[in-house]
Amino acid sequence: MITASPAPAQLSPADWRQLWREAVTDARELLALLGLEALAARLPPDDAGFALRVPRGFVARMRPGDPHDPLLLQVLPQLAELEPAPGFVRDAVGDLGARAAHGVLQKYAGRALLIASGSCAVNCRYCFRRHFPYAEEIAAAARWREALAHLRADASLSEVILSGGDPLSLSTPKLAELTDGLADAPHVRRLRIHSRLPVVLPERVDDEFCAWLSGLGLRKVVVLHANHPAELDAGVAAACGRLREAGATLLNQSVLLRGVNDDAAVLAALSERLFEAGVLPYYLHQLDRVEGAAHFEVGDDRARALVEALRARLPGYLVPRLVREVAGDAGKRPL
Ligand SMILES: *Cc1c(COP(=O)(O)O)cnc(C)c1O
Ligand code: SF4
């Protein structure tokens, strides 16, 4: 009998690519991991057209046995996604009309957003991109040339925003290729990265990444995306520490989500925990009205009341700005 010898350990246990590949993609498996098998009867067919994906480290922050866990609700496909909801559309933020070059969205003065990648480590059920053809729109690979040429040529741009999808899904050498392409664009003074990876897969903030970030001759801003304090464990706090050591200013944006964080105590705890990790709350977004996400919506009056309640209990710098994205506006619209 031939027994296979164990494969040599080529990857450390914390290699982020391996953790990415090992993400849970089967809703039944996710429910089984949490002891919630009974909920399987209420899963929508075909994940309601938007695949489930969630890293195991994020699953570990969920409360077993709790069908209302705020982290679970953000990733679990629900039958409610299939219910028609007037006003909830496929292109909820007018992205398809804001293309300045292939992979570049330019909606606001001085800032251009580069769709650097089509993929995410986690698929958030409320996400506006659940129907957006980002997979075809990514500025990656050969098409980067066009996007970079556009950014170099427009001297009105002082900030380049890497977004997606999740830009940190790209390898660090790929990111370096991108910033090398901006080296001869002196008008670009700031690089902003919008990413949920430091929260859902903090192992992504590895030494190679931090060396790239700290070596950039640009001001650096990293905007995280956390919606609930339970997302922020010690691993996330450590990743935030590494980002700050690399010279990044850390901000967070959240989406206001019914059943997840539409509660003043939860939002206050989120702000407090962010600050402990060296992160300032930036935006609290009203949900983009995307098809399949209506069950997460919180009314504007209730949203304003929640932020008022935050103002009453937190220092001003821990109160995020409540905004909505409105197609055609010159910036995010304050509520
Ligand atoms: C949200 C967004 C920005 C950034 O807006 P800020 O208010 O500066 O955070 C830039 N470009 C696009 C296309 C956006 O959607
Ligand atoms: S773009 Fe952000 S909100 Fe949307 S699925 Fe990816 S990580 Fe989640």
UniProtKB/TrEMBL annotation:
It comes from the Bacteria. GO terms for molecular function: 4 iron, 4 sulfur cluster binding; isomerase activity; metal ion binding. InterPro entries: Aldolase_TIM, EpmB, Lys_aminomutase/Glu_NH3_mut, rSAM, rSAM_sf. Residues 105-329 form the Radical SAM core domain. Its cofactor is pyridoxal 5'-phosphate; [4Fe-4S] cluster. The modification N6-(pyridoxal phosphate)lysine is found at K332. Keywords: 4Fe-4S, Iron, Iron-sulfur, Isomerase, Metal-binding, Pyridoxal phosphate, S-adenosyl-L-methionine. It catalyses: L-lysine = D-beta-lysine. [4Fe-4S] cluster binds at C120, C124, C127. Belongs to the radical SAM superfamily. KamA family. This is L-lysine 2,3-aminomutase.
